[in-house]
Design brief:
The complex is a heterodimer of chains A (263) and B (605).
Chain A lengths: L1 H4 L2 H26 L9 H20 L2 H16 L4 H23 L19 E4 L2 E4 L13 H20 L31 H10 L24 H15 L14
Antiparallel strand pairs in A: 1-2
Helix pairs in contact in A: 2-3, 2-4, 6-8, 7-8
Chain B lengths: L1 H27 L17 H36 L2 H35 L1 H34 L7 H33 L16 H5 L4 H29 L4 H39 L1 H8 L4 H25 L10 H18 L9 H7 L13 H24 L2 E2 L5 H25 L5 H29 L4 E2 L10 H27 L4 E3 L3 E2 L10 H43 L20
Antiparallel strand pairs in B: 1-2, 3-4
Helix pairs in contact in B: 1-3, 1-4, 2-3, 2-5, 2-7, 2-17, 3-4, 3-17, 4-5, 5-7, 7-8, 7-16, 8-9, 10-11, 10-13, 10-16, 11-13, 13-14, 13-15, 14-15, 16-17
Classes of the chains: A mainly alpha (263), B mainly alpha (605).
Chain lengths: 263, 605
């Protein structure tokens, strides 16, 4: 056992297998058990990670001539030594079978919707029309922050949210409303640090006003179930809802800066 | 004979470019005709044709602008340091320029032909604004060409004394002309991205002020980004040339020379690469400031997945660059003591690439999305944002610098009395820098986006300050250091040279991909929000077709570069073969392990 553990080939194999176990099972299944928010990692990301690990292992093994020779030893011996004929034969069959199985897995008919590449935050237009009124989005601030009572605005926002948004976005604002799982893409999770704090209020205004039908071309696939609320709500009601969202989640909205900047 | 042939190729290329400009400019400023010309060649449409011509022109141009920058520095090292091998190396670098220069001119001419015939109305629009700068451009192009001829062909004639200094000044002039030429062309393309305020589709182009058109929001950031990127690219291509020559070498002497040349090219490429992200970051900020829509399209919208591909490719660059240094330590006596650290440095790099390549929003099928509760992974999403990525890349830069430091110190034992304290100080600087980088990375999660953006500046400054501080100590500490033995140039396994080739290919690919991002964020505009693209190719191509076109460009480029390498090798091959024949006849055979040889490269062209 010790002999194997000290051999570069088996060390490399152990690192690759351990990495796979960590990415596939530890992140996906062990972390939730110990109370850390996690979920199984999508296969596209697993493949990405494993490629990086594999390249890393090969680089390490071949960075030193002696280690590289030792690393190749078991492979070379398996390929040429007469006493490894049985193992060689097994591998000669196993590898094509493995490749064939992988190929079959990829091409076999499936009824699942294909994996999608979706821009969650597509670029907003510089201006939009709200029931015929043109509104410049660049530099636009929430007008309710400067006028009236914040308490009242939040009360309006809460009423609008509960009446219109809860079924999809959930009463915890986490995108887990009653209908959420019926949609693909699922409704936005406002509690995620990747959503509200990354966006200016003008961006959120645009998304509520125009909804799924108003997604730009690059926002494919255009199957968001979000309605275009401009036909139902008034501008102030939308701004009040935005105030409510930021207030409830505790995130500050992204602000405009003179120097610009991006993430 | 060969010299005449090379010169002929150069001349034809320049003439072709001049002809293109002379014919195209007046023709294209003419009265309105059709908006677009017809083109279909093996399925390639007009946009594809312009794309390929522009990309190849840019790749060759980057090479011919980058190489003179470090050739002139290396010549100065040879001239002021009195070591002739640097002078010969600089000349060998410059020789590669000659044919590449022709290729630049030819692809530039093809680009002008395509633009003028396939986009006649838009080209007329551009010439109406930029015509004076186009004539200056053409004039400077000639000036640059003849300065290059003088610089290269006068190398041996002006080898000593004041003449050498004049020759060196020619190299500086070559760089100045080249830089101005690039700045002018950058003015045209950045105008298309970020035209001055107040322009509309109805604005007559003749009324647009030339200087305000050139000096637009993204002009200077692109200038600086490209200046640095040209050095990186030039170093990488030179490294690839050296790798090719190393792999085809027949003598130990030849292998030793090209091993050294490859090392120098890699050092230049990786050294300039370290500061390149900062220039890129500035460019990104300016784009975002110019137009939020453009910024979000680039970073969060349609183009955002390109950054994951970029992360992969830059990861390859870091890994290959470090790998080359680590293998290179095998030919340095005394480097064994640093071997145990390699696995830890590799671990930092691999983790860094993993963090950088973690998408914020993942490609997932319906079941996977349901399991994650959205398109973001509940645990891995912390790695998908810029706080994590900035931290990762800064630590990767720091690790790469550490690799270089170990390589540099491998065969040296400092003799200064404060050597131990100096090394500890260096270690402390590294540790402090890592703490600063990680601190701001973690703190970034707890502040607003606007504050977080500022943190990346602190991280960058910490890394740059550490690099300068540590290298300063190192230079002082290694003065008069005891040598553990000379570097055994040439004793490199072949796989190290493949790392150099991978570096060059990756840089080329990266330039194409990120160039697509820069140009593609204009979407359906020729000039952003001023002149609309009304052709049938007005859509922005998806990543797949875009990657295909870019890969075709990379293949064509390396096909042509292969010819240049072959031509570059024709001349010296005979010399090395003669040397080999002589060596066979002689009793003593130059053994490996000697100090860097200086083959008589300067005597042949």
């Amino acid at each position: 056992m010790k002999r194997y553990l000290s051999h570069p080939f088996w060390q490399g194999a152990i690192v690759v297998v351990a990495s796979y176990v960590a990415f596939e099972y530890v992140i996906g299944y062990v972390l939730p058990v110990i109370g850390v928010a996690s979920a199984p990692v999508p296969s596209s990301v697993i493949v990405e990670y494993m490629l990086i690990v594999l390249v890393g292992v090969l680089l390490y093994m071949s960075a030193d001539e002696e280690r590289w020779q030792r690393f190749r030893e078991p492979i070379r011996e398996t390929m040429v030594q007469p006493d490894r004929r049985t193992l060689r034969g097994i591998l000669m069959v196993a590898f094509p079978v493995l490749i064939g199985w992988l190929a079959y897995e990829r091409v076999k008919p499936s009824y699942a919707a294909p994996a999608t590449l979706r821009a969650v935050h597509p670029a907003p237009p510089n201006q939009l029309t709200f029931r015929g009124e043109t509104i410049e989005l660049t530099g636009l601030e929430n007008p309710l922050r400067e006028e009236g009572s914040m308490e009242e605005h939040l009360a309006v926002g809460k009423r609008i949210y509960v009446r219109n948004c809860v079924p999809c976005h959930g009463d915890l604002l986490d995108g887990q409303g009653h209908y959420a799982q019926a949609f693909n893409p699922v409704p936005a999770d406002f509690t995620s640090s990747g959503n509200l704090p990354q966006l200016t209020e003008s961006y959120v205004f645009w998304r509520i006003v125009k909804g799924g039908p108003g997604l730009p071309r690059e926002g494919t696939p255009w199957d968001s179930a979000m309605p275009a609320w401009e036909t139902i709500l008034e501008q102030d009601e939308i701004w009040a809802t935005i105030l409510y969202l930021y207030d409830q989640t505790g995130f500050p909205p992204r602000t405009w800066e003179e120097e610009g900047g991006h993430e | 004979m060969k010299r005449r042939m090379t010169r002929g190729v150069v001349t034809r290329g320049v003439l072709l470019a001049a002809l293109a400009l002379a014919v195209a400019l007046p023709l294209l400023a003419q009265a309105p005709g059709p908006d677009y010309g017809e083109f279909n060649f093996l399925g390639l449409d007009r946009r594809g044709a312009v794309w390929i011509a522009a990309q190849l022109h840019l790749l060759f141009a980057a090479f011919v602008l980058g190489v003179p920058m470090f050739a002139v520095v290396i010549e100065a090292i040879g001239m002021f340091g009195g070591d002739e091998k640097y002078d010969k190396l600089a000349k060998e670098f410059t020789r590669l320029l000659l044919v590449a220069y022709s290729a630049t001119a030819i692809w530039g001419a093809i680009l002008v032909f395509f633009l003028s015939t396939l986009y006649p109305r838009f080209w007329a629009y551009l010439t109406a604004i930029f015509a004076p700068s186009m004539w200056v451009y053409a004039g400077l192009f000639f000036l640059e060409s003849f300065t290059l001829y003088l610089y290269y062909y006068g190398w041996d004639a002006w080898k000593k004394g004041a003449a050498k200094k004049v020759h060196w000044c020619l190299g500086i002039m070559l760089n100045i002309w080249g830089t101005i030429v690039m700045f002018i062309a950058n003015g045209w393309l950045t105008y298309m991205m970020s035209p001055p305020e107040g322009l509309t589709a109805d604005t007559a182009p003749q009324t647009v002020q030339l200087w305000s058109a050139i000096n637009n929001a993204t002009w200077m950031p692109i200038n600086i980004h490209r200046l640095l990127a040209n050095v990186v690219f030039g170093g990488a291509i030179v490294g690839a040339y050296a790798a090719y020559r190393f792999l085809t070498s027949r003598t130990d002497e030849e292998r030793a020379h090209y091993d050294w040349m490859g090392y120098t090219g890699n050092l230049i490429a990786i050294g300039a690469l370290i500061v390149l992200p900062f220039a890129g970051y500035w460019l990104g900020r300016e784009i975002y400031e110019f137009s939020q829509q453009m910024g979000i399209t680039m970073m969060g919208g349609f183009m955002s997945w390109l950054w994951i591909i970029q992360a992969f490719l830059i990861g390859i660059l870091f890994l290959a660059g470090n790998y080359y240094l680590w293998i290179g330590m095998g030919r340095i006596p005394g480097a064994e003591r640093f071997q145990p650290y390699i696995k830890w440095m590799l671990l930092v790099l691999v983790l860094g690439v993993i963090v950088w390549a973690t998408p914020n929003t993942m490609i997932a099928d319906r079941d996977e999305i349901a399991a994650m509760g959205g398109i973001r992974h509940p645990f891995l999403q912390v790695l998908g944002v810029m706080s994590a990525k900035n931290t990762a890349v800064n630590l990767m830069i720091l690790t790469t610098f550490l690799s270089f430091l170990m390589y540099r110190r491998a065969n040296k034992d400092p003799v200064v009395p404060w050597a131990r304290a100096g090394t500890m100080l260096q270690g402390a600087a590294f540790a402090l820098c890592a703490v600063v980088v990680v601190f701001y990375g973690v703190y970034g999660y707890f502040v607003t986006a606007i504050v977080r953006i500022g943190f990346s500046v602190y991280q960058v400054l910490a890394v740059l300050a550490t690099i300068l501080f540590v290298i300063g100590i190192d230079m002082a500490m290694l003065r008069g250091a005891k040598s553990r033995g000379e570097i055994r140039w040439g004793r490199m396994p072949d796989r190290s040279q493949y790392a150099l080739l991978i570096l060059a290919v990756t840089f080329t690919w990266l330039m194409g991909l990120m160039g697509f991002a820069r140009s593609g964020i204009r979407q359906h505009w020729h000039v952003y929000e001023v002149i609309r693209d009304t052709s049938e190719q007005a859509f922005t191509p998806a990543l797949g077709p875009a990657a295909t076109i870019i890969s075709i460009c990379v293949l064509i480029f390396f096909g042509l570069v292969g010819v240049i390498f072959w031509l570059g090798g024709l001349a010296e091959r005979s010399v090395y073969q003669e040397a080999e024949a002589e060596a066979k006849g002689a009793e003593g055979h130059a053994a490996l392990g000697e100090p860097m040889p200086s083959p008589a490269l300067g005597d042949v062209d």
